[in-house]
Amino acid sequence: MSFLNYLINGLSLGSVYAIIALGYTMVYGIAKMLNFAHGDIIMVGSYIVYSAMSMAGMHPAIAILIAMVGCMVLGVVTERVAYRPLRGASSSLAVLITAIGVSYLLQNIALLVFGADTKAFTSVINWKGITLFDGELQIRGTTIITIAVGLLVLFGLQAFIHRTKSGQAMLAVAQDRGAATLCGIDVNKTIAITFAIGSSLAAVAGVLFCSTYPTITPYIGSMPGIKAFVAAVFGGIGSIPGAMIGGLTLGVIEILSRTYISSQLSEAIVFAILIVVLLVKPTGLLGKRVMEKV
Amino acid sequence: MKKKLAVSVVALMTSVLMLAGCGGGASGGSSQGSGGTAGGVFKIGAIGPMTGDGAAYGMAVVNGSKLAVDEINAAGGVNGFTFEHKGEDDELNNEKSMNAYNTLKDWGMQVLVGPTTSGCCIAVSDLAHEDSMFLLTPSGTALDCVKYDNVFRVCFSDPAQGTASAKYLAEKGIGSKYAVIYDSSDPYSSGIYESFNAEASAQGLTIVSAEAFTSDSNKDFSVQLQKAKDGGADLVFLPIYYNQAALILKQAADMNYQPVFFGCDGMDGILTVENFDTSLAEGLILMTPFSADATDERTVNFVKKYQEQFGEVPNQFAADAYDGVYAIKEAIEKKNLTPDMSTEDICKGLMEAFPEITINGLTSSALSWDASGEPNKEPRIFAIEGGKYVVQ
């Protein structure tokens, strides 16, 4: 029974990684860049929801909507200002370093605006969850809703990419930017849309993350950001179902290794598994090997 | 391309881990020892994180010492001289703390109240020892903080807190089975845990689970709580800071686990977490030197003045720093030190004076020191009842 409890705790943690990883993997898959500021956009989204709910007293649904729009604008603006000018740069490292810079910038702005004090987040999910076997086994409401939202986002994204014109444009851009331009696809616009969607997903991830672990500081985004990135790579970066599976697996591995091996070594074990997976299958669990054309 | 990515990811992860791993570093070049500056004022420096993760602690130390300095000056100073005060930010970073120390030394500092946190304090104490600068840390609790003879502290050391906690629990018979959740990446937390563990076995207390977490995994405590619950612990000892404790209290409530929680001075501040549901902390017991809710005249006056000047309720760090400045005043008066003496001579005088003085402070009515730098005082225990600290 306690094994089931730990498994569910693992899924709970994993569901949060998964939903963050979805945003990472989408931006990587299409824009071919690692947006290290993704974790910090999550932080910004959480602060927006916190301010709207706790300070302005708005309804959670409206607060989430505002956060999604806010993050969308933030994502598009950073893309336009910080990433687009470097897209043609000879080294793809330039964009990566800029993304790390943006990440620090966002953290420090949040530090200036909201201060360093820990703030308690009022969970937007009030459902206690399901209790089974006379309270022996408990599945929290946040876990169920996070997984449900994750699946919803997963299918939504798949449908968007495969069924709509902008989605098809994204696939084309992902495959070959030059050829996409020749076909009349506006690459800049397509990538901007990718960032808009990815960033508003970050807001949703932020709300769910803070509902599960209800404290906010300007640094909450960084560690989950790295873990979610690992989850995305684990599942095969660029693959949307891969991010979901990667996130859930990572959470379960982390909790189980913390339970049965060592509570201090769980991080090391997670990263060691990542290294092994990458050595055996460099593209991750669901990643596809794309042949490079000469 | 994908293979290249995989390799670079591995490289990146390694570098992230390495970055996370290295805390301290080489010392910044220390400037030449500037002796006594213009006579008339004693220059007191204060160091702590005024921005970043520990900002609440650093601001409290800087503000608390400032308040004491202002009071002393308004009341006629010390031996006819006044104090001048300057605070520097170290962002909870050892190297920046050393830089802050050097900045203050260039300013002409003669006595240092700080650094606020253990790691920074250990780093700066090396420099202060070289310079023979008297250093009084309000809140550096690690053992090594006072390894030099010119370094004293106002707070209890980590081991002293762990030992006192276990003794208190055994004496009062609170709880029958104990669990511990501690931060193994933090010397403060693991230091308390180790001495608690040693004293608990000496007292015959049963510890059913002792689970660690690290600064990289300080959000999810489900495993640690589940193990405590499965072991039947009715008291959970939390030698950690309140930020994580707030999450632990919430997660325990979510899983319908209601043991007594017991914390040390890092727990102080739990009620000030903005928007925190204080009913979660009901019944929590903590060992901390100061409570703003106490009703003695000294505390009431201090809290009132602090709030007027800085717009916040002071915490124990502010009280420790405040007491520290008064102790320095007492010591200066005892040995008739003057500001035109060299920093070395002031340091020597204060080192001789500290084991001889006893002050009636905020954190203890009889605060005195060993020559080793450790304070002698009674531990104070509070319980949270109705959203307030109640003295036990």
Could you characterize the architecture of this molecule?
Chain A is built from 11 helices and 4 strands, in the order ααααβββααααβααα. By secondary structure, chain A is mainly alpha-helical. Chain A has one domain. In chain A, strands 1-4 form a two-stranded antiparallel ribbon. In chain A, strands 2-3 form a two-stranded antiparallel sheet. The termini of chain A are far apart. Chain B is α/β, with parallel strands linked by helices and 392 residues long. Chain B folds into 2 domains: 41-155 and 297-376, Response regulator (Rossmann fold); 159-288, Response regulator (Rossmann fold), CATH 3.40.50.2300. In chain B, 43% of the residues lie in helices and 17% in strands. Chain B contains 11 helices and 15 strands. In chain B, the strands form 3 sheets. Chain B has a 7-stranded mixed sheet with strand order 7-6-8-9-10-14-15, with helices on both faces. The longest helix of chain B has 20 residues, at 2-21. Chain B is elongated, with a radius of gyration of 22 Å. Chain B starts with a helix and ends with a strand. Mean pLDDT of chain B is 86; it is low at 16-38. At the A-B interface, helix 1, strand 1, helix 9, helix 10 and helix 11 of A face helix 1, strand 7, helix 7 and helix 8 of B.
The major sheet of chain B is characterized as: 7 strands, mixed
**N- and C-termini, Cα separation of chain A:** 56 Å
Low-confidence blocks of residues of chain A: none
* Mean pLDDT across residues of chain B: 86
Computed CA radius of gyration of chain A, to the nearest angstrom: 19 Å
Order of helices and strands of chain A: HHHHEEEHHHHEHHH
Return the structural class of chain B.
Answer: alpha/beta
Number of extended strands of chain B: 15
Measured by DSSP, the beta-strand proportion of chain B falls in: 15-25%
Strand content of chain A: under 5%
Give the oligomeric state. Answer: heterodimer
**Overall geometry of chain B:** elongated
Work out the helicity level of chain A.
Answer: over 70%
Task: Supply the CATH superfamily name of the largest domain in chain B.
Answer: Response regulator
* Total domain count of chain A: 1
Distance, first to last CA of chain B:
65 Å
* Rg measurement of chain B, Å: 22 Å
CATH second-level architecture of the largest domain in chain B: 3-Layer(aba) Sandwich
